[in-house]
Each structure stands twice: as structure tokens, then as C-alpha cells.
Specification:
The chain is an alpha/beta fold. The chain has three domains: 92 residues, OB fold (Dihydrolipoamide Acetyltransferase, E2P) (Beta Barrel); 169 residues, Rossmann fold, CATH 3.40.50; 74 residues, Orthogonal Bundle (Ribonucleotide Reductase Protein R1, domain 1). It is built from 13 helices and 13 strands. The chain has a six-stranded mixed β-sheet, sandwiched between helices. Helix 7 packs across helix 8. It is globular, with a radius of gyration of 21 Å. 34% of the residues are buried. Bound molecules: guanosine-5'-triphosphate, magnesium ion and zinc ion. Magnesium ion binds next to helix 7.
């Protein structure tokens, strides 16, 4: 493939101008450019100029990359060597990042783990009920600005609050961050969805961030007509509407905009640990979605998919207990007492509102 073709095809995937010399050099070395779509535990899914391919890191990269930060992450541009007529790829290097969202590795002073690379705009989602929290917003803004990315606050689930409440949330944010762009939306009523959509340009990369359950994946589905159907039928199957995200992935919307969905984690205040546990133990999180009860403790419940997996030897008991231990620790440290009190108060306000009939029941 000539350099021109490769460049124009990858432009749809967000490739900024690369000098023809640079691309030519890669081609001479028998390598091609590709973008990382998702990172699995043992491999990556990448997009080359003409297709989606599974890729693996070279042994050298696995064993000598000094920091987690130098490993490829979702959104990265990488150079790869293709095998089996382009069906399989080996990753050679990560190209310099234009921007990077990263968090501290839990328990380590200076190590950072990249969340997503080459992002233009990060959408921080906070739900108008239960989740809204100015201090947590600050932490996200630090990560975003530190990474050279433009932040936008998306206040989600506006269908659950009265206009008066929504306006007061906006006022509170404005007092701290007068210049921050804020968009309110509801994936249920579709209010504001058009505004979000019009905020996204083709060939630009957006990242959805925010706690578990704020509606990131639901928004992604509203923005992309194609995926809406798939999720709806999945939800009909299990009947519970549980589909928590376990890994970060980049998708190309029909509008031409690129968007990275990330997993959040419930009741976790610190970005250092946020999503880390869920991603590290994504296999366990996935199995747990089949548990009969949403709030399964995986200890004694009937219909617990985790216990079943341990019994069948599919899941290591020690790994499970480590997961539970880390989960307890971060739930404990993740939220200050004051935050917990706010949370409870918001919840009781919501309940009263529902009793008064001010808010439609779902
Ligand atoms: N009322 C209301 N509910 C919503 C809205 N958007 C999403 N939800 C519900 O909120 C729940 C969580 O939504 P998700 O999209 O899975 O949340 P998420 O942010 O992707 O969560 P993680 O993947 O766990 O990080 C689901 O039950 C959705 O149906 C909304 O605009 N209004
Ligand atoms: Mg999700
Ligand atoms: Zn269980």
C-alpha cells in the first residue's frame, strides 16, 4: 500500500498529518501505522489502514518497557508488522503521544498508568442525582488538563431532576470553574443529545470519563445508532439492564467522530484506584454480571456465577479473594465521610421528590 492511501484511510481513525517521509520510513522497515482500539490482558485489537487486527507486543516490549506508561494504551498510534496476509500483527513501538490521560498506579509514588492517548476532548460525566460532586470533578479536571486534553462537563440524567435543581448544579460548577463548558443531557428523553452530538467533530477523538453508572455507555449508544440495537437486545436477554463496562475501547461513530468509552467504578473517590481494579479483574467483573442478584456478595448467594466458576475450577480462589480485598479497601478509602453524608442526603431528597410526585418514576 502506498503512503498516500495509508494516510488517507487512517485519517478517518484520527491520524493527524504525518510526514510522508515518516510513513515511508515505516514502510521500508516493513511496518505500518495502526491505532489501538482496545487493550486486552494478553493482546490488543488495533485498526490498520484496511482492517481490525489482533496484535501482540514483541517480547522486547513486554519485558523491557520500564514503566506501564510506555506500554500501548487505547488511542495510541503504533508501528506494527503484519503477518498472515494482514490477519495478525506484532507491535513494535508506540509513537509519541499528542496527549495522554493517565492516573497514578495505586500504591506507587511515581508510576502512572495511561487511560487513553491522543484524545482531543474529555467528557466528564456526572449524574444530576447521587453522583454530582465538585471535589471529584476537580480531580478529573486535574487529570485532563495535566494530559493536554480539553475538558467538557456532561451532566447526565437530567430527566431525574427538576429544572431548578439542574440550574443550581450549573451555578455551583460555574462558581468554581467559570470557563468550563457544561452540557446537560438525558439519554432517556434524549434532551441535549443533539447538543452533545454537535459538539463532536469527525476525525477528532473524545473520551468518556466518570463513575460507574453515570450513563457513559448509554450515551455512547445514543450517539451511535448502530450499537443501540445490540445493547437493547442484550438487556432484554438478562432482563436486568446490567452491562457495566470492563475495558476501554475506541469506536468510530457514523458521524465520523471517534469516542473512547471507559469503565467507572461505583463509590470510588480516588482516580488513582478508579477503574484500575475493575480493569485488572475484568474477567471477574464479567462473570459477576451473570450472578442472579445485582448486589451479590459472591459469598453465600444462590445463583452466584462467581462461586460456580470457582467450583468448576475456572476461577482461582486466591485471585477472587484478592479482588474482594482490594474492592473493600478502595470502597473504604474512596469516599470521605462528608461525601458519604452528601450522598445519603441527596438520596433522601430524591426519594421525597418522588413521593411528592415531582419526578416521574422510571
Ligand atoms: N434516568 C436515566 N437513567 C439513565 C440515563 N442514562 C443511563 N441511565 C441508566 O443508568 C444505568 C447505568 O448506565 P451505563 O451507561 O451502563 O453507565 P456507565 O457510566 O457506562 O457505567 P460503567 O460502565 O459501569 O462505568 C443504566 O441502568 C442506564 O439505563 C439517563 O439519561 N437517565
Ligand atoms: Mg459503561
Ligand atoms: Zn455472585
Amino acid at each position: 500500500m502506498n503512503t498516500g492511501n495509508q494516510n488517507s484511510s487512517l485519517k478517518r481513525w484520527g491520524l493527524e498529518e504525518r510526514s510522508p517521509e515518516e510513513v515511508l520510513l515505516l514502510l521500508q522497515q516493513g511496518r505500518e501505522l495502526a491505532r489501538v482500539l482496545t487493550v486486552n490482558r494478553t493482546n490488543l485489537v488495533i485498526r490498520t489502514a484496511d482492517r481490525e487486527v489482533v496484535a501482540e507486543l514483541t517480547g522486547k516490549m513486554l519485558f523491557t518497557s520500564e514503566t506501564p506508561e510506555s506500554r500501548p494504551t487505547v488511542g495510541d498510534w503504533i508501528s506494527v508488522q503484519l503477518f498472515d496476509e494482514g490477519e495478525f500483527a506484532i507491535v513494535h513501538e508506540v509513537l509519541p503521544r499528542r496527549s495522554v490521560l493517565r492516573r497514578k498506579v495505586a500504591g506507587q509514588e511515581v508510576a502512572y498508568q495511561p487511560i487513553a492517548a491522543n484524545v482531543d476532548t474529555a467528557f466528564v460525566l456526572q449524574a444530576c442525582v447521587n453522583d454530582f460532586n465538585l471535589n471529584r470533578l476537580d480531580r478529573y479536571l486535574v487529570v485532563i488538563q495535566d494530559g493536554g486534553v480539553e475538558p467538557v462537563l456532561l451532566l447526565s440524567k437530567i430527566d431525574l431532576v427538576e429544572t431548578r435543581v439542574f440550574d443550581s448544579l450549573i451555578d455551583q460548577v460555574r462558581q468554581r470553574h467559570p470557563d468550563l463548558e457544561i452540557i446537560g443531557f438525558s439519554s432517556v428523553t434524549e434532551d441535549g443529545i443533539k447538543v452533545v452530538r454537535s459538539r463532536m467533530l469527525p476525525e477528532k477523538t473524545y473520551c468518556l470519563m466518570g463513575s460507574s453508572g453515570v450513563g457513559k455507555t448509554t450515551l455512547l449508544n445514543r450517539l451511535s445508532e448502530a450499537e443501540l440495537h445490540a445493547t437493547a437486545s442484550v438487556r432484554e436477554l438478562d432482563g436486568k439492564g446490567r452491562h457495566t463496562t470492563t475495558r476501554r475501547y475506541l469506536s468510530l461513530l457514523e458521524s465520523g467522530a471517534l469516542i473512547i468509552d471507559t469503565p467507572g467504578i461505583r463509590e470510588l473517590g480516588t482516580i488513582s484506584a478508579e477503574t484500575g481494579i475493575k480493569e485488572t479483574f475484568s474477567d471477574i467483573v464479567e462473570i459477576a454480571q451473570s450472578c442472579k442478584f445485582t448486589d451479590c456478595t459472591h459469598l453465600v448467594e444462590t445463583g452466584c456465577a462467581i462461586r460456580a466458576a470457582v467450583d468448576e475450577g475456572l476461577l482461582d480462589e486466591a485471585r477472587l479473594s484478592n479482588f474482594q480485598k482490594l474492592g473493600r479497601e478502595s470502597a473504604h478509602h474512596g469516599r470521605s465521610l462528608a461525601e458519604r453524608r452528601d450522598h445519603d442526603r441527596d438520596l433522601s431528597k430524591l426519594h421525597k421528590s418522588i413521593q411528592r410526585g415531582n419526578i416521574k418514576r422510571r
